[in-house]
Amino acid sequence: MKAIPYLKVMVLVVAVLRPDIGACTVIVVPSPQFPTVQSALTSASTGDTVLVQPGTYSGPGNTNLTYGGKGIVLISAEGPGVTVLDCGGGGRAVRFGTGDGSDAILSGFTITHAGNDAVFCTQNCRPIIRDCAFVDNGTSPEGSAGILAMSGGAAIVSDCTWLGNSGSACYLSNATGVQLSGCQFQGNTTEYYGGAIYCENADAMVDRCLITGNVAQLGGAIYVFGAGLVSIQACTIAGNLSTDFGGGMFLDAGASPVLTRSIVWGNCAGIGGDEAYLVPTDWVPQVTFECSDVDSSGVVAGFPGWGIHYEGTNLFEDPEFCEAMSCEVAPFGGGDYNIHSDSPCTAANSPCGQQIGVGDPDCIVSDAVASSALQSGRVQVWPNPMSTKCVVFGSGLQAPMTRIDVVNSDGRRVRRLLGLPSGELGAVWDRRDGAGQSVPRGMYFIQCQGPGWSRAARVVVVSDGQ
User: Fold this and answer.
1) I need a surface site. Which of 13, 85, 165, 231 has the fewest CB within 10 A?
2) In a domain, 96, yes or no
3) Over 80: is that where the pLDDT of 256 sits?
4) Does any domain span residue 105?
5) Is 131 inside a domain boundary?
6) Alpha carbon 22 to its chain's center
7) Strand residue runs (E) in 365-408
8) Sign of CA pseudo-dihedral 14, 16, 20, 21
9) pLDDT tens digits, residue range 89-109?
């Protein structure tokens, strides 16, 4: 089957999401008439597409972008691996506000060097954000570095990656109907609460997400406070670190998240509650696990025995990750959080007959798959050369990346990364090997595989600052 280019895939998605739109205008950036992204957004009308060519976009007119309440599709032509919104260490990339509904779409960008709040959603907005990478945002170790949704704002986010941000990757305060699906949160750090997700009086659904290697004072991965409805489904929460309480989750007054078919394992906390900590308060927090794999010895209630609910049948045994990293070396990116084929979390072995967690049940590379040819499409690495971290992307692939290995010049695998189900957005590598040690500078190969194809991309690792 012929591969479908990245742009055509996204145009098809837009057509499905907006069947009411007939003919629309495609505005290309850059062009003589539209040298900046904002100039195109300002000129565009509802139903139009702003198509951004590969490159790095920074400075006035390319950051602090607004849609103006119009249903515009802002999309890169060749994906996030080659299309960057660089905020230059201050400001934000995009602000969504009043009138920006689900017909306002942001797709296919790497967003980097934002001050705080790389993408801001407020005043009942509900944009769609997909296939984006948030890398090295945040100038303060507190607050939000990635997506901030507040005051009734929301976002429908899918197939995005947050890597190495300073501040909570997603900060949700009084937000309604936030959806995070097929996303990856790795190596994000805050001195406050919730390294990956901060959720205060907010409704959120977190589905099929990998949350590993994040660090916070409270809730290394997730912090929840208040009466919002928080649902966590088919996620893997592992290897996160809290300097105080709640390595995986910190549940404050009134919190009541429900975790279904999820793994909470291998997190750690400096004081207590390696997997989850429920704060002792008059407004007792609750947590419910359903068909999940949990290290229950690390689930701690401030009032012993209060608020912890295991509904139906759960697992309390090692999920058998392929190559997990220790929470003691967090923050980190990467690790292989697929599961062994005989893991208790596979559909065949789980108590509910469905797979638990987000990883694939396979740790062995198939020789047939590895030797098969990729008919079209390509794998890209950005930045390249790299110093401390890089992002791996695909463009025009005929099937998703399911296996990503980092191999040195001697042909030895030094790290296995987890592929995401989007097909285009692959993984992140933080220059560490499987033992958590920084690799020496030199040439490496990113070997990517999917059903019926394989391909490699070369990346050069240089010393810091070179």
Assistant:
1) 231
2) no
3) yes
4) no
5) no
6) 33
7) 378-382, 390-395, 403-408
8) positive
9) 888 999 999 889 999 999 999
